[in-house]
Here is the input.
Amino acid sequence: MISLESSIIRFKDVFKKYYPENVVFSGIDLEIEKGEFVFLTGPSGIGKSTMLRILFCAEHPTSGEIWVDGVALSSLSSAQVPYLRRKIGVIFQDFKLLSNRTIFDNVALSLEVIGLGKKQAEQRVMQVLEGVGLKGKMNQYPLRLSGGEQQRVAIARAVVNRPSIILADEPTGNLDLQRTEEVMMLMEELNARGATIIFATHDERLFENTHRRVLRFLNGKIRT
Amino acid sequence: MSLAILCRRAFFDLRQNFFGQLITTMVVSLSILIFAFFTLLYFNLQDFVDRFGTELGLTIFLTKEVPKDQIPYLYQKLTDLPEVEKVTYISSEEAFRRLEHFLKEEKDVLEGVDPEFLPPSFEVQINRAVFQLDRIKQLAGEIDKWPGVSKVQFGQEWIDRLHVFSGLVRTIVAIIGILLMFTAAFVVTNTIKLNVYARKEELEIMRLVGATNMFIQGPFLVEAFLQGLLGSSLALGIVFAGYSFLQGFETKFELLRGMNICFIPWHYTVAIIASSVLLCVTGTALVMRRFLRL
Here is the structure.
C-alpha cells in the first residue's frame, strides 16, 4: 500500500469522455510513489497518451481530481501551468525536436525557458549530452541523426532541467531493439537518480522480466 | 525575461524565419502604400481647394461718388482685417487700362468713353492661414454694408462648387481609406496567422518544456513591432519618392506648374507608422492569444 505522503501523482475518481460517447477513463483511482518507475500499457488508442497529456495539462479530465507533486490540477490557473510543466519532463515517440536548431540548442531550450544563466546552461547541457553519449554531435541538426540518437536528444531535453517526474509516451516505438535497450538503460539510470518515471508502451517485452509495477488499461479502468 | 534575452530571441527568430518575416513585412508595406497613396491624394485635394479659395480673393467695387479722401481710410480698414493678406487699389483709370488691354485689337469700341465710367475697386487677397469659406462669405456681407462700397464680388459660386466636389471626393477617399484599413488589418492578421501556424510545432514544444505565454509571445511581438515599423516606413518612403519625382516634373511641365503638390503632414505620417505598428502588434497578440489558449 502506498502512503499518501509519498505519492507524487494521485488520481481520484477520474473520468474522461470525448464527445459524444467515447469514454476513455471511467473512474480511475491511482497513486504513484515518488521515485517509482511504472509501466503504463494497453492496446493502441486505449488512453495511455491521454493520461500523460492530462498529467502535463495538455488536456483536462471530464471529472475527478488529479494531484501532481501535491498540487491539485483543477486549482491551477493557465498562468501556473508552465511552472508545473517545468517539474515534468516529457518524451515522445516522434521526438518533437526542432529541426532548425542544433542538438545543443534543442536541449538548451528547456533551460532558456526557466531563465538559467548562459554559462550555467551551457555546463548543464554539455553534462547531459555527455550522459546520453551525444556530446560530439551537439552542433549537428536533428535530421542528421539516427532515430535512436534523436530519441536520446529528446531524453536529454526532458531531463536537463532536472524534473522530478518523467513521462515517456512510447519512447521506443520507432526504435530497433538495440536502440530500445539503450533508451531503457537511460531511463533506469534516471530513475536510479530519483526521478519518477511513467513509461507508456504497448510493447510487453519491455517489462516482461521486470519487478516494476505495470498499470494495464482495460475498459476505462486501470488494473495493476 | 530580460529585454536583452527577448531581443536576442527575436533576432534569432528573424534570421531563422527570414522569408516568412519578409512576406509579412511586404504585405504590411503594400497595404500601407495603398493607404498612404490615398492619404496623399486627400491632402493634395484639400490643399488645392484651400489655395484656390485664397487665390480667387475678393473684389470690392466702390460707388462712383465715393470721396477721394475716404479711399485711404477704406484701404486701411481692409488692411487691418486679420483675414486679409494684401489689398490693391484699382482706380477707374487703372480699370479702364485693364479693360483696354483685355479687349486688345477691339479696344476701339471704348473710344470716346470716359474712363470714369468704371467704378474704382479694391482687390483683396485672403490670408491662406486663416482661410475659411464661411468666414469669407460673412466678411463679404459685412464689407458690402460699408459706406462707399457698391458691391463685393468673389468666386463664391466657384468655391461652392469646388467645395461640393472636394467634399464628395473627400468622402470617397475616406470610405476607400477605411475599407483599405480593414482590408490591410485582415490581410496582415492572416499573414501573421500563417506565420504563427508555420511555427506551430516550435510553439508546442516551447509550451511543453514550460515556457510561459510571455516567453513565447515576446519575440513574436518584437517581430511584429519591427514588421509594422519597417513595412510602413518603406511604404511612406516609396510615396515620398513618388512625391519628390512629381515635384521634379512640376517645374518641367506647364500642366503641373503651380499645382504645388504637398506631402502628407508629418503628424499624419507618424500616425500612419504608429497605426501600422499597433495593427501588427495587436494582430499578433490576438493570434497568439488564440493559439496559446490552454
In short: The mean pLDDT of chain A is 89. The longest strand of chain A covers residues 7-18. Strands of chain A lie at 7-18, 22-33, 37-41, 63-68, 71-72, 88-92, 165-169, 196-200, 213-218, 221-223.
